[in-house]
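Hi again,

Forgot to attach this to my earlier email, sorry! This is the prediction with flavin-adenine dinucleotide bound. I've pasted everything inline since the attachment limit keeps bouncing my files.
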Amino acid sequence: MRPLLPALTLAALIVAGGTRADLIGDAEKGARHFNACTGCHEVGNGAEDRIGPHLNSLFGRRAAAHEGYRYSASMERAGIDGLTWTLETLDAYIANPRALVSKTRMSYRGLKDDQARADLLAFLRQFSDNPANIPEAAPTAIGTDHSVAPEILAIQGDPDYGEYLSSECVSCHRADGSAEGIPSITRWPEQDFVVAMHAYKEKLRPHPVMQMMAGRLSNEEIAALAAYFKDLE
Amino acid sequence: MTLNRRKFIAVGTAAAATLSAPALLADGHGKPRVVVIGGGSGGATAARYIARDNKGEIDVTLVEPTRSYFTCYFSNLYIGGFTDLEDISHTYGTLAAKYGINVVHDWAVDVDRDSKTVSLAGGAVLPYDKLILSPGIDFVEDAVPGWSVTEQNKMPHAYKAGSQSELLKAQIMAMPEGGRFAMVAPPNPYRCPPGPYERISMVAHVLSQVNPTAKILVADPKPKFSKQALFEEGWQRHYSGMIERIGPDFGGENVSVDPEAMTIDIDGMVEQVDVCNVIPAQKAGRIADMAGVTEGNWAPVNAADMSSKMDPDVHVLGDAAAQGDMPKSGFAANSQAKVCAMAVRGALTGSKVFPAKFTNTCWSLIAEDDGVKVGATYEATEEKIAKVDGFISQTGEDAATRKATYEESVGWYSGITTDMFS
Ligand SMILES: Cc1cc2nc3c(=O)[nH]c(=O)nc-3n(C[C@H](O)[C@H](O)[C@H](O)COP(=O)(O)OP(=O)(O)OC[C@H]3O[C@@H](n4cnc5c(N)ncnc54)[C@H](O)[C@@H]3O)c2cc1C
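Structure tokens for the complex follow:
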């Protein structure tokens, strides 16, 4: 018995310990957070579109793909680019709607509390497909943390370096800020720019070209670009 | 880390239970004993991993009535003409010879959890320290009015592979020119979410070669199914006009059959058919019920080690388990079996136990060289096995990708069956 104890202790602790993944959040608490959304959204049995679309079968759906609801042009564009509602994209959207969809009609400042957002998403997740029956349905537990760390937002960008880097952006995005076919990126608040670029980098925002471009930019380089474009006249 | 016994027990009852088991076993009766019921995907894997990794420290008995296990995976490909029946059959000789597993070809007919024994149809009584149940599925009685297992020769389910697969294939080959094949698809949850639709694809494939004017009718109680966009795109491309699926919006959930008359009644519309493949609603293999570890149709388990929520010394694997987000698949059963084997060995011998991780990928063949897949990774949470990430084949993929996917599935088949039976 004695010699067995150390090994067993370790084994048992690993099983009993905090190494398990966590569900998205607490759905019951999330139901309470959803009260803040019910002015515009319905979910559950018999839910219908109101000011905002109903949220049944939301997970796994393309943005702006729910028929019969009129979305903003910005949301339509995101859908065409391939934005799909997943745990990560919804988390980013609810945290700060305009980080993901610049001119969304959802007039909501964003829910900054990570736990509250997790609980809300756990609540909403119940009204979409179950992966046991449809394996491709959205996850029900949190994978990796995709939020942009405060250290990244705090990086001071060097606008001169940004100008140099911007040369490849302006092959597509017009430096004069006009937006035809390709959105404008000038005069953006610095933080929005950083958040958006990191969302591409982490493949939260769709669009393969932007994912590729952002993917090879360092945190400092993104900060530099943000500093440059914010003041571009 | 140094913990004395007292501190250790204070850590929690789960940990304490794990600790006390080996002490009892060692005192009681020499080698710890594991009995596995069911030598399919989950059971064969669990028996093999426990026996292989312990080199005789644990006594492993595998109870399985059949001498040849026919995998359900690739049984649709057999119907489609892409593989032979012999190629999906596996025997238990290696498990006995190479790993010293005591393979008993018999039915388990009762489990007494108080005395920790399993009774076999042949009269033997097997004591266990840990029991692993992987009995697969049985059918819910009266799920499809008019159908029962006694009618399975007239209207085969072919949802347990072997003679049923052979029968269904023979019936398809004997269909009159321009005849009709019907399928009654099952409600959720059932084994292999894409299985019925892969079968439709394979039936269509073989009919388009030998009986191209034949028609396929599917009555489906579900509004949606796995890989739906991929299947529907493929049916359109390869079998245009051949397949008609009636979902619940048109009465697909209100179905009865008459095996004598060979008719199927879909919401009052009676159709004469030549072959009728009835896949009824499913539940855990009956022995799980007899062991008293089911709740409703399935046996709830803890995600971290696949132990029953009703008894820490009973583990339930594969289709029979209610575990959370994993689909009922052979891949999933194999994945769960490894987590279970690790936990059982840990509990019985003190070997290392790492956090549970699960994966699954389901390939389906739509037509020759047109393979698709859906896969995901899962982790154990307090409540259930939860999906954390995944992927699925895309519509409109090029032929090379689809061919590569099919080839991948052939490689997977040989890999996973080796991991179970060799
Ligand atoms: C048409 C079809 C296609 C499929 N395709 C795939 C696929 O491509 N990929 C995939 O991963 N999965 C696939 N599956 C699913 C897969 O076959 C099952 O999910 C898997 O076999 C489940 O493993 P299991 O151990 O739970 O049960 P099984 O593999 O069914 O094993 C159960 C065993 O228990 C035995 N048993 C039952 N009761 C008793 C008893 N009382 N005493 C002793 N023994 C008993 C049975 O004889 C059987 O051998 C498919 C299934 C079907 C029907």
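Residues 164 and 229 of chain B are 29 Å apart (CA to CA). Residues 399-421 of chain B form the longest helix (23 residues).

That should be everything now.

G.
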